[in-house]
S4 domain-containing protein YaaA
Amino acid sequence: MKEININTEFIKLDAFLKWAGVASLGSEAKIYILEEMVKVNGEICTQRGKKLRSGDVVNFEDEDYKIV
């Protein structure tokens, strides 16, 4: 599991995918989310603007990213 540091109270899911290096463009992140390729805390998430906070775990292509 990779730990990703954020320095704000929360980060939106699409922005997080770019921050973590999963997606290189916002449009790429949008596609991943809309095609149900992203899980947040074990559940598929299709909300681009989902607010992620410290302790949340994002899964993409069998790789886990924990927000710290």
Remarks:
- The two ends are 12 Å apart (CA to CA).
- The helical segments are 13-19, 26-34.
- The longest strand covers residues 63-67.
